[in-house]
Specification:
Elements (H helix, E strand, L loop, with lengths): L1 H5 L1 H45 L26 H13 L2 H39 L1
């Protein structure tokens, strides 16, 4: 409401910008559908030839309307692979590494304490056996 009163040009410019963006989206969709129709025959031939060599590594193809031709197209990543990737990244964080090291230290300290207790018991048993003899 305040913008309508004080900055009407801002609102009109933003509305024009939205219309231009919508127009660009529609134009790209139309170009994409045309490109898909023309490339469909080529894709069928390509898929039939690649089905025999399915063990080869398949790379993603850049989107034809993309500015960066080297940027690969978004591909489907399985959920399990996403979890593994997230876990690997999480495990490489410095805080997590430090926490794991501290946990390992605590485990070692606890095992050392148990060893000391066992040693004391054995030593006490040996002393008691010598005293009884």
């Amino acid at each position: 409401e305040a913008l309508e009163i004080h900055k009407p040009q801002f609102i009109s410019r933003s509305q024009e910008r939205l219309k231009r963006l919508e127009h660009m989206v529609q134009r790209r969709k139309a170009q994409q559908s045309d490109a898909l129709a023309s490339n469909q025959g080529a894709l069928v031939r390509k898929l039939s030839s690649t089905s025999t060599s399915s063990k080869k590594k398949q790379y993603t193809i850049p989107h034809p309307l993309s500015d960066n031709l080297f940027k690969p197209k978004e591909r489907f990543i399985p959920e399990k692979e996403m979890h593994m990737r997230s876990k690997r990244i999480y495990d490489n964080l410095p805080e997590v590494k430090k926490k794991q090291e501290e946990k390992q230290k605590r485990i070692i300290i606890q095992s050392n304490r148990l060893r000391v207790e066992i040693f004391k018991k054995q030593l006490l048993d040996q002393l008691l056996q010598r005293n009884t003899e």
